[in-house]
């Protein structure tokens, strides 16, 4: 570190030397990632590069063969396919998840429903929602407990343009409050939004340049 410069904040999420194979097919081959509080990171890469595999390992829903993930703080994870109970309403999902997180009320849940613009579906069954609205509920549930680190696997698939813009407003608010966000994305035109583009190629993550500063990739 240069003398007089501000020390970098300790990472909120750090992955070191992650390896993962499915049978004899190696997918991750020594992937490293360091995420600081307030940082917005995109994981990019070709179809089948292993982005979802990486996110599942970061989220702790899939074990790595080798390597470690260190998380300091709470985690929210929004997988690619919504994990909802078709026979519960939006409101019931909010209640169950709020109880699971021991939240005192539904205020944040209701605020997220309003911010994402689907209040009119609060009494609807999840099984009867459109794909985009299911995705909104999925995102709401991942955000309900205001996690320190949010992992999003292509979160805006199926969002209309207005919702897409609301999504980025929400992300801006999270970042200003020091929350870190890791997003898998395929959209090239939005890449300037990110602090870091972490490119997954040959099972490893390498930084791609963006217009923002303070990049941290690797240990
Ligand atoms: N459960 C599994 N069993 C066997 N192979 C798997 C499994 N899950 C993923 N794979 C394989 O691992 C590789 C990486 O898959 P993954 O879904 O992580 O890629 P991705 O980068 O997220 O792809 P995409 O951009 O298409 O969503 C692919 O070749 C995929 O077929």
Descriptive account of the structure:
The chain has 219 residues and is an alpha/beta fold. The chain has helices spanning 51-59, 90-100, 107-115, 131-143, 161-176; strands spanning 13-22, 25-35, 40-44, 66-71, 75-78, 149-153, 180-184, 196-201, 204-208. The chain is built from five helices and nine strands, in the order E-E-E-H-E-E-H-H-H-E-H-E-E-E. The chain has a six-stranded mixed beta sheet, with helices on both faces. Strands 2-1-4 form a three-stranded antiparallel beta sheet, covered by helices on one side. Strand 6, helix 5 and strand 7 (180-184) form a beta-alpha-beta unit. It is globular, with a radius of gyration of 18 Å. The two termini are 15 Å apart. The relative contact order is 0.22. The structure holds adenosine-5'-triphosphate. The site of adenosine-5'-triphosphate has 10 residues, from helix 1. Residues 22, 27, 45, 47-53 line the site of adenosine-5'-triphosphate. This is ABC transporter ATP-binding protein. Residues 13-219 form the ABC transporter domain. One of its GO terms (molecular function) is ATP binding. Keywords: ATP-binding, Nucleotide-binding.
């Amino acid at each position: 570190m240069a003398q007089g410069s501000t020390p970098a904040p300790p990472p909120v999420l750090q992955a070191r030397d992650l390896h993962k194979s499915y049978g004899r097919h190696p997918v991750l081959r020594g992937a490293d990632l360091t995420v600081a509080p307030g940082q917005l990171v995109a994981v990019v890469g070709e179809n089948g590069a292993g982005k979802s595999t990486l996110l599942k390992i970061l989220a702790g829903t899939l074990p790595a063969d080798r390597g470690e993930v260190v998380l300091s703080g709470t985690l929210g994870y929004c997988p690619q396919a919504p994990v909802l109970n078709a026979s519960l309403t939006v409101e019931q999902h909010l209640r169950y998840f709020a109880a699971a997180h021991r939240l005192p009320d539904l205020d944040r849940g209701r605020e997220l429903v309003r911010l994402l613009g689907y209040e009119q579906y609060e009494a609807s069954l999840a099984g009867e929602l459109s794909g985009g609205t299911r995705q909104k509920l999925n995102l709401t549930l991942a955000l309900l407990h205001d996690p320190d680190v949010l992992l999003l696997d292509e979160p805006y698939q199926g969002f209309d343009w207005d919702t897409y813009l609301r999504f980025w407003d929400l992300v801006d608010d999270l970042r200003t409050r020091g929350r870190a966000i890791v997003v898998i994305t395929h959209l090239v035109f939005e890449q300037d939004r990110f602090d870091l583009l972490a490119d997954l190629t040959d099972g490893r993550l390498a930084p791609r340049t963006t217009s923002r500063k303070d990049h941290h990739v690797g240990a």
